[in-house]
Amino acid sequence: MTLAIVLLCIVALIVLISAFKINAFTAFLVISLLAGVLLGMPLATIPKSIEKGIGDTLGSLVMILCLGAMLGKLLAESGAAQKVAAALMRAFGPKYIQWAMVVAGFVIGIPLYYGVGFVLMVPLIFSIVYQYRLPAIYLGLPMLSALSVTHGFLPPHPSPSALVVQFHANMGLTLLYGLAVAVPTIIVAGPLFAQTLKKIEAHPLETFVSMPAATANEPGTANSFFTALLPVLLLMVAALFPLLSNNPQFHNVVTLFGQPSVVMLLAVVYATYSLGLRSGRSMTQVMTIYGDAIKDISMILLIIGASGALKQVLTDSGASNEIAGLLQHVALPPLVLGWLMAAILRACVGSATVAGLTTAGLIGPLLLQTHTNPNLMVLAVGAGSLMFSHVNDSGFWMFKEYFNISVKDTLRSWSVMEALVGTVGLVGVLVLNELVTY
Question: Is 0.85 surpassed by the pTM of this model?
Answer without folding.
Answer: no
